[in-house]
Amino acid sequence: KMEKHQIAAPGMPVMASTGAVTDAENNFDPQGKFRIFKQGAYPAVEVSVTDTDALITQGGAMISMHANVDLSVTTHGGAAASCFRCCCAGETFFFTQFKAAPDAPKGVAYDVLIAPGIPGEVTMLHLDGNTNWRIQKASFLGCDPTVKIDTVMQSLMKGCCSGEGFFIMKASGAGRLVLNSFGSIIRYDLAAGEKRAVDNGALVAWTDSMDYTISRANKNSTMASFLSGEGFVNRFTGPGTVFVQTRNLKALADALIPYLPTQGNGGGGAGGSE
Questions:
Q1: Which one, of 154, 165, 129, 161, lies nearest residue 144 by Cα?
Q2: Per-10-residue mean pLDDT for the chain, 274 residues long?
Q3: Would you say the pTM of this structure is higher than 0.85?
Q4: Which among 1, 147, 252, 264 would be 20 to 30 A from 130, CA to CA?
Q5: From the CB of residue 228, how many other CB atoms can be counted at a distance below 10 Å?
């Protein structure tokens, strides 16, 4: 289990602080429908479905499924919501729904194995019908049919500078929601009035009631903010919870550019194009 990270002087006790790193989430499902395997860089989630209890996933998430499981496509929220999600948030128009086939024995659960498309951890949120979540558009993996997935628009400043774009996803309702990250998932629980800065591209999800602002990484120096490579950051104010990821997909893509083939060059070697 992930412990709170504290540093103390020699001989001094370690004191707990607000906003400290905690376990990403309680990934145990008391009902046994969702089970997370191989947590780490390459996790998978086994989900049990029946003829009355289905699973909704992002397109292309299925790795394997029982022969008695049928899949279908669903707009999950209606055609208008799906169109908005596809055109504005960069997500697929259709989600995939898994449930027991009509001719399968009734009252029997059958397994579906799903996994994210990029290396990183997964975490499970238990929505209670009261707390809604904002999700960065690449982090949704799957959920119960009772969880509603919408697309919401951010302000001009957040859309340009937050690293999340103008449209993000919103999860509401009651049920289990499975998210994935690029890298490890870290959870911060912020007390009322507590503030925390999160780097652009590091957001996974945050409670809907907790707003954030965009500002320079160094509040007093624009030069320090940009020469440090941090630029703008997202500043959250509690109370609420924010999940972050420890790797940035854009940073990886930028690092690979020198090694990719270019026009007139058959391939990028260790030193890139000459």
A1: 129
A2: 36 42 68 93 97 95 98 70 47 82 95 96 96 92 95 56 61 97 96 92 92 69 48 87 92 88 63 46
A3: no
A4: 1
A5: 11
